[in-house]
Design a protein that fits this description.
The complex is a heterodimer of chains A (188) and B (176). Chain A is α+β, with helices and mostly antiparallel strands and 188 residues long. Chain A has a single domain, classed as Inorganic pyrophosphatase (Inorganic Pyrophosphatase), CATH 3.90.80. Chain A is built from 3 helices and 9 strands. In chain A, the strands form 2 sheets. Chain A has a 5-stranded mixed beta barrel with strand order 1-4-5-8-6. Chain A has a two-stranded antiparallel ribbon with strand order 2-3. In chain A, strand 2 and strand 3 form a beta hairpin. The longest helix of chain A is centred in the last third of the chain and has 21 residues. Chain A starts with 5 loop residues before the first helix and ends with a helix. Chain B is α+β, with helices and mostly antiparallel strands. Chain B has a single domain, classed as Inorganic pyrophosphatase (Inorganic Pyrophosphatase). Chain B is built from 4 helices and 9 strands; from the N terminus they run αββββββββααβα. In chain B, a hairpin with a 5-residue loop joins strand 6 and strand 7. The longest helix of chain B has 17 residues. The radius of gyration of chain B is 15 Å and the shape is globular. The chains are: A alpha+beta (188), B alpha+beta (176). Chains A and B meet through helix 2 of A and helix 3 of B.
């Protein structure tokens, strides 16, 4: 058994919902404006450099995951987190979901679903009024889509946007991903 | 300041290096542009979310490209520089591209590529080949990608060496 620091262990054992506030707990992996993509490795409990984005690309918002979940691709469910300033890898941000960007990713002829939840930090000022992805300007959604399409393209992956849905579907996906995680843990 | 940028020569008499006027710093999502009529730097636009300039981007003064603007130049350097900075640049070559709006015909829009050279800083590369394939591929992708988002087609048609880049400037100066 590898040893983990108390903080890293805490991330692995966190539940998706903060029991004190009922907020969704988002763990930031990659801060906004970063060209480096960082990821949390559950095995070692370390944050590691996953990849470097092509020159001229940077993450448009903080990007991370909800702990205690498992999405269709086997990883914890991805979250794009809207807030006023960037956080740092490992930072827990209490958030609420405003929707989901539904997408498919294809690599080596294998296509899998890779949805991204979109959340707003509970303490955010600029995004306080935002309740649903539908309230975002259509152009912003197009820009986000273009970002994911563009950087995957250079890695030889295709990213296809299927659509976007509001908070109800986002919370439904979160519940499903929480159940999948419980099932997997039960089998262990 | 801005007035003198408009009368600057393309090539520095003493060093023989290109005087590049930076419009847009590296890592900027905002694209700035010197307005020759007023001498102001104007915010032209914001690139789509997640897209930033991979290197400082500017123009060669006293030249005219086929698109009606001065010749563009991308400076390979790790630092951002700033809008209005005149940078001493060694030419590495030219990446030849063309673009078109929907329903219109192709217009040539080459990008000169250069590296900073000062008495203390040797240029990081001497030719486009020195930059390596990955670096060039990423630069190519950047221009294709943001043009595509803005509804323009952009395609690369070839490259030229430092000598060809130099002739473009000389031809561009004559046109002007």
């Amino acid at each position: 058994m590898k040893t983990k620091s108390a903080n890293q262990k805490a991330i692995c054992e966190m539940s998706p919902i903060d029991p004190e506030t009922d907020a969704v707990q988002v763990i930031v992996e990659t801060p906004r404006n970063s060209r480096n993509k960082f990821r949390f490795d559950e095995e070692t409990g370390l944050f590691e450099l996953g990849s470097v984005l092509p020159a001229g690309s940077a993450f448009p918002y903080d990007f991370g995951f909800v702990p205690g979940t498992q999405a269709e691709d086997g990883d914890p469910i991805d979250v794009l987190l809207l807030m006023d300033a960037s956080a740092f890898p490992g930072c827990r941000v209490r958030s609420r979901l405003i929707g989901v960007i539904e997408a498919e990713q294809t690599e080596d002829d294998e296509t899998e679903r890779n949805d991204r939840l979109v959340a707003v930090a509970e303490d955010s000022h600029d995004y306080r009024e935002l309740k649903s992805l539908k309230d975002l300007s259509p152009n912003l959604l197009k820009e986000l889509e273009h970002f994911f399409v563009s950087y995957n393209e250079l890695k030889g992956k295709t990213f296809k946007l299927i659509g976007h849905r509001g908070p109800k579907q986002a919370y439904k996906l979160l519940r499903q991903a929480t159940k999948s995680k419980h099932k997997r843990n039960g089998r262990k | 300041m801005a007035q003198s940028l408009l009368t600057l020569a393309a090539i520095d008499d003493v060093t023989g290096l290109v005087n590049v006027v930076i419009d847009t710093p590296r890592h900027s999502r905002c694209k700035y542009k010197l307005d020759p009529a007023t001498g102001h730097f104007r915010l032209g636009k914001l690139l789509p979310l997640g897209a930033v300039f991979p290197y400082p981007f500017g123009f060669v003064p006293a030249t005219l490209g086929e698109d009606g603007d001065p010749l563009d130049l991308l400076v390979i350097v790790d630092e951002p520089l700033f809008a209005g900075c005149v940078a001493p640049v060694r030419l590495l070559g030219v990446m030849q591209g063309e673009q078109r709006q929907k329903g219109e015909s192709w217009v040539r829009n080459d990008r000169l590529i250069g590296a900073i050279e000062t008495p203390f800083n040797h240029p990081v590369a001497e030719s486009l080949d020195d930059l390596g394939q990955e670096c060039r591929r990423e630069i190519e992708h950047f221009f294709v990608s943001y043009n595509q988002f803005e509804g323009r087609e952009f395609r690369w048609v070839g490259t030229g060496n430092a000598q060809e880049a130099r002739s473009l400037i000389e031809r561009g100066s004559a046109e002007k």
